[in-house]
Amino acid sequence: MTNAATAAHVRIVTAEGGEGWHAPGLTEFFPEPFLFEGTPFAINRIMLVRFIAAIAAVLIIWLGTRKLRLVPGRGQSMMELVQEFVRRNIAFDSLGERLGRKYTPVLTVIFVSVLFFNLTGVIPFLNIAGTSVVGLPLTLAIIAWIAFMYAGIKELGAKKYFGGQLFPAGVPKPIYVILTPIEFISTFLLRPVTLTVRLLANMMSGHILLVLCFSATHYFFFQASGALAAMGGVTLIAGLAFTLFEIFIGALQAYIFTLLAAVYIQLSVADH
Questions:
Q1: How far apart are CA 264 and CA 252, in angstroms?
Q2: String of b and e for 149-168 (b: at least 16 CB within 10 Å)?
Q3: Which single residue of 148, 156, 169, 240 could bond 268 by disulfide (Cβ 3.0 to 4.6 Å)?
């Protein structure tokens, strides 16, 4: 933890009056920059984790697909398994075969990106999800927003798309005064906001739980004494359990985020 972070933490003071355990706080997500400080390009530990995750994703995909064969090798098989999962279980189920094939590439990119950035939270020496600070979840949500806007305009035309979304057929005209602003907010504003908040909140809370468990384990094992030291075993087991749970949540959130993006595309292309 940085000095700025620990200053804002809840403290447990030892019996001798010394410094004790510091509970994690929101300052965990705002580490000090170590490059280009004071500029729009400032890089802190979380940005570095994002760069590493992005490079790893590109490198793994490149290695798995650089020598495509009719009979796939191990790496190609893994890449095809991921794409097939997105295509069959997300794209085709939500959009049907024609549109599913068309939007599988962008949905696959969203799924792989969210998955890799989520799983950095459980990788040693990285230890924080790239999606646990709002900038990245918002960027991914904007990509999904652009995708469903493009899909609606491409399939229906701009006039029919916006008309169908903002002025649903079969509604008395005076009701549009109330209905149209509600439709505008829910369709064009709340969709990316809810995608952002859902992903952000899950990854933030997961990181806080892991830091809470492992920082408490360190304190109990190396600073506490007597019977209190035995509590380190409990917090260690809890930390390991939450690590496995966080892997599951990271994969689940990637699936949910991509599935909602596909559902929003389907809602955009539906002829209202």
A1: 18
A2: bebbbebbeeeebbebbbee
A3: 148
Taking a C-beta distance cutoff of 8 angstroms, is the pair 8, 25 a contact?
A: yes
Helix (H, G, I), strand (E, B) or coil at 15: coil
Average pLDDT over residues 195-201: 96
Write the DSSP assignment of 53-86 as a string of letters.
HHHHHHHHHHHHHTT--SS--HHHHHHHHHHHHH
Which residue type is seen at 130? G
Check if the beta carbon of residue 83 is closer than 8 Å to that of residue 258: no
User: Which residue is listed with tokens 């509604």?
Assistant: 171
Q: Assess whether pLDDT exceeds 70 at residue 39.
A: yes
Q: Tell me the pLDDT of the chain averaged across its residues.
A: 88
The pLDDT of residue 271 = 65
DSSP 225: -
Tokens of 54: 């992005």
In this structure, what token pair is assigned to residue 76? 């190609």
Give the separation between CA 113 and CA 110, rounded to whole angstroms.
Answer: 5
Q: What own/partner pairs with CB < 8 Å and gap ≥ 24 does 160-166 have?
A: 161/268, 164/271, 164/272, 165/268, 165/272
Q: Give the closest residue to 188 by CA, choosing from 271, 268, 111, 91.
A: 268
